[in-house]
Amino acid sequence: MIKFVISTFNDFWMDNAAENFYRIVKEIAEVEPEVVESDLSENNIEIRITNKEKFASFLKDKIISRRDKYIFFEKEDTKTKLINNVKKDFVIMQYGTKIKGKNVLKEQVYSDGDLASLLEELIKDLESEKKKKTCVLCNRSFAKSIGNLKQSIYPFSTKIKSLSGIRTELDSDHNIQQMKDYFDNVCPVCYVVGALEWSDGGIIYRCYLNSGKSIFLLPSYGDLKKLHQLKSKYISRLPIGESRSNVIFKFKKATGEEGSTVPVGNNTLMLGFLEKAIDECLVENENRISFWEVRKKYGLDSWVLVEVPSGTVKNIRQHHLKIKDNALNLIGLMLENKFKTYEQIIYKCNMRYMEDNSIFWEETEVLKEDMARCIINDAYDGFASAMLPRKKAYFDIFLDKEERENFPNKFIYEWRWKKMGLTKEELERLSKAAEVVAKVANEHIGDLYKLDKARNLTELLEGLQQISKRTIGVTERKEMEKDQNIQYLSFKSLEDFSELLHLKGSMGGNDFKNLKSTLMIFACMKLANEKRNRNKKEEK
């Protein structure tokens, strides 16, 4: 019997790689228990091989299957109309020479011709008693390396001198000298395990066409058992073989046909995936469990986002994302209330050109990213500011009747309003004041910016006073146009809200900021309706 242990690396890539390898071995063990056995704990994975020849054979089949399933996707050649296998853009591996018209990878772990002999070398090293080298990744002893450390094994390694040269040490005379680059000091286990992480179905990715980069996400936990619980829960729900992303949202087109969309960037990918993952985790053995049980079991708060540049030189960047408790609680509570933060708010937001009402796609992507970032970071005031009109464009969101009711009564109420100790009736008072602000801002947009810039209660009340003066002129024009919504345009709405400001806003701190931000959110929502209604009239 060959027995070996893989311990936690305290490195998000290698910990995920170890968990991925455990899943592969576990799949083999479930079908062939006489060949291999595996156990998982918080800190260790123990693997016991009882038939090394069969294990190597089954492992090879699993690797080839996962390569074709998770690394490649199928794409039709525009000229020949033949179906090609294409590597997903975030995968840091080079193509080898095509075999029988099919793309292959240079990396020997995924090579049909090299893999069998590579696994033989792995088994030999596990059996060897002459282990004199030390692995730079796991710190274990090994006999002979099967390949150098490179980005296809560990994406944060590099051969670029300007980058590798930063590894320095002091000599006996306290002079700085460059350390040796240990490119060959990686053990066979870490080599194979690290390379196999690219075939992990738990990688959440977004690839872009002609944008110069792709991104992917992985959970970051030092607890292997917790990592396995979470990934096993969501992996089976992710689509396979998608070129753009495996976080996909379906929608109905105006024609009635079904369409699909994917997140636009880093923050929308994180938020969109979290919403889907939490929704899946809420289902346990066909029963719906509480969000608090989900948090206790799966965590969901620690992730690493990696940016992978296109091209041959991959100087990648990583960002550790620690999701705020308030953000996770908000997403979970909304799902329990059958309202989806990403799918029913962020996805439906646009920025439209002032001139012709068409969608301003570049600013729309910025808007969605800003709003998603603010939800993840629990930045309520930033969320409000993101909705402000731009120089050439204005915020727009199209919600159905139920969503229009859920936005204030569920989303805004749970995110901030309830925490301020205010009622839904008081939220309605604010909503009526926002209606007045929106109607005035439709003709005097500077007044909306003035409210947003208010730093204290006095400045906000001054801004509202200016809007009160504007209502006279706006009311006269609306009466001439026979506007049916004129009943909202009254001093009373602003007076009621001013009373609320004196009640809570005078306390300072977050209460003032939250009241102002809520007013801005509602005003921008209602301004979108004003713009939309005006455009409809002009079209007639």
UniProtKB/TrEMBL annotation:
- The protein depicted here goes by the name CRISPR-associated protein
Q: Which organism is it from?
A: Candidatus Jettenia caeni
